[in-house]
């Protein structure tokens, strides 16, 4: 029972990482109809920016303060990169899915290669507060605090996104702009600014996922963003393109199934089951669990 509980909490932590990446993907595609394969680049940029700041400040400030400052720095850098990409490149390709794919895939490959050239191929170790390396006893299981941090953060992000989209003026403007951009523009509302905000939120969420990935696994690499992006896309498709609740539900299913299958089955069985689940969803319900019928 202790092992099962530990697997469950670890699976929930992994689901939290998947959701943080997938929520930004789902937000950008669902609200802006943009296929953003460069989303993993925001994750990589945010993670390494945070690591650089943390490395420079280690020994100068207390570790807890260093972690917070480094986290904020990573969020700012990742968000700025996302905004600049939307303003300078993506905005010219709205409605052109082929162009979006070519552009964003190229950006992802370029950023990954640049990160590998600058920081090397070896994993770099992330410095976190001592309490994040400790464990908390839950039902007899020794659960690493880093897993709990990811779970709580993902839950708060989900609640924040739902509140933003359903209860705030900008959230309502964004949703209305997706349905009928011309009508919203005719009312004197700057839809372009709202869409830039969506990209900024997506970049911040991806950067947050990259930073927490370092805390979760203890290290970061240039390829980490790409591997997370693959499962994030699976989560988005299973949950339903554009559905934040669907992404949350699918992330839970994918994270837990991976942990259970990899432990109780053969190594790699979890990935196989996730791909099989994706195939079943595409065959039975192509719009995803909570997606809208086209």
Looking at this protein, list some descriptive labels.
Branched-chain amino acid ABC transporter permease; transmembrane helix; amino-acid transport; two-stranded antiparallel sheet; globular; 294 residues; membrane
Describe this structure as you would to a colleague.
The protein has 294 residues and is mainly alpha-helical. The chain has one domain (2-223). 76% of the residues lie in helices and 4% in strands. It contains twelve helices and four strands. A two-stranded antiparallel ribbon has the order 1-4. A hairpin with a 2-residue loop joins strand 2 (135-138) and strand 3. Helix 1 (2-32) packs antiparallel against helix 11 and helix 10 (224-239) crosses helix 11 (244-264). The longest helix has 31 residues, at 2-32. The protein is globular and about 60 Å long. The N and C termini lie far apart (44 Å).
The separation of the N and C termini measures 44 Å
Envelope shape: globular
Average pLDDT works out at 86
Task: Please report which band the strand proportion falls in: under 5%, 5-15%, 15-25%, 25-35%, 35-45% or over 45%.
Answer: under 5%
Overall domain count? 1
- Derived from helix and strand composition plus strand pairing, the structural class reads mainly alpha
Helix % is over 70%
The Cα radius of gyration reads 19 Å
Number of strands: 4
Helix segment tally: 12
Seen as an oligomer or otherwise, the chain set is single chain
Strand order of the largest sheet: 1-4
**Uncertain segments of ≥5 residues (pLDDT<50)?**
none
Described by strand count, sense and barrel closure, the largest sheet is: 2 strands, antiparallel
Order of SSEs: HHHHEHEEHHHHEHHH
């Amino acid at each position: 029972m202790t092992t099962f509980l530990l697997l469950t909490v670890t699976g929930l932590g992994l689901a939290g990482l998947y959701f943080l990446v997938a929520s930004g993907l789902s937000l950008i595609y669902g609200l802006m109809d943009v296929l953003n394969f460069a989303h993993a680049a925001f994750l990589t940029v945010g993670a390494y920016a945070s690591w650089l700041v943390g490395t420079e400040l280690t020994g100068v400030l207390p570790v807890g303060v260093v972690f917070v400052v480094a986290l904020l720095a990573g969020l700012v850098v990742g968000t700025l990169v996302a905004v600049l990409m939307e303003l300078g490149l993506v905005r010219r390709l709205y409605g052109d899915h082929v162009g979006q794919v070519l552009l964003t895939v190229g950006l992802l490959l370029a950023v990954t290669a640049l990160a590998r050239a600058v920081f090397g191929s070896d994993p770099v170790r992330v410095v976190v507060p001592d309490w994040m390396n400790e464990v908390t006893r839950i039902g007899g299981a020794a659960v690493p605090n880093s897993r709990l941090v990811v779970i709580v953060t993902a839950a708060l992000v989900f609640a924040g996104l739902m509140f933003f989209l359903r209860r705030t003026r900008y959230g309502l403007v964004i949703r209305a702009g997706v349905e009928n951009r011309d009508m919203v523009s005719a009312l004197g509302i700057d839809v372009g600014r709202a869409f830039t905000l969506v990209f900024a939120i997506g970049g911040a969420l991806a950067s947050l996922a990259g930073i927490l990935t370092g805390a979760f696994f203890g290290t970061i690499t240039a390829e980490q963003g790409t591997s997370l992006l693959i499962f994030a896309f699976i989560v988005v498709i299973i949950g339903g393109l554009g559905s934040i609740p669907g992404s949350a539900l699918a992330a839970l299913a994918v994270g837990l199934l991976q942990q259970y299958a990899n432990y109780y089955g053969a190594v790699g069985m979890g990935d196989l089951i996730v791909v099989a689940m994706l195939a079943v969803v595409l065959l039975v319900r192509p719009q995803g669990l909570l997606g809208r019928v086209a």
